[in-house]
User: What shape does this take?
Amino acid sequence: MRRRTRRGILQRLAELLFPPPREGGGLPHGLFPPLLVALTFVSGLVDAVSYLSLGHVFVANMTGNVVFLAFALAGGHGVSSSASLLALAAFAAGARAAGRVHRDCPAERLFVPLVLTQAALVAGALVLSVAVAWRLPVVGLLALGMGVQNGVVHRLAVPDLTTTVVTRTLTGLFADLWGPASVRRLVSVGVLFAGGLAGALLTVHREPWWALALAVALLLWTTATARTALSARPRTR
Assistant: This one.
């Protein structure tokens, strides 16, 4: 009963994000759109942790790290060139690995193992942050995990649900006429904001590891839900 209820809620959200055609037919992207919304929330969580507790560096928003690196090289205070470079390099490595692995394999089949890999990396960052409080290794693991996330999301190519990019999403939201894409963009921006707010509240008023623990839990839930949804699909040759 719980599984059916969960699937019903996700299906309604998927239909809200991608309304099925009037002439009938299934959901164009299955249940992946609401799962990508969950990953968007994770992006906000980990960026809140990295910026507020790891030295003003982002692990999901690489646009910020590019300009932070420029500020640091110019002698700006409060930003670290080493942290920004590490985040950029780790993110790039994660994205490359996720983008190059099994190129002949459909992205849907790689979603579960790649997001599980991301969960393991975030869990490793969680352990390090609690056990030894090493800042740069935590930044590296989180950025590597976010690179993996962005790599698999890029391969899925679900429109307007990139899980991290906000500038282009906001541009489309206000520049284009209102329609189904506007709903997706509004949800994407709102959920990223909600993730950042939740991560900031946990980091400031509790401890950063609370936010990382929530991120790991959401990633594991996402993989379990995706596995169930994929196993319920009829197999095609």
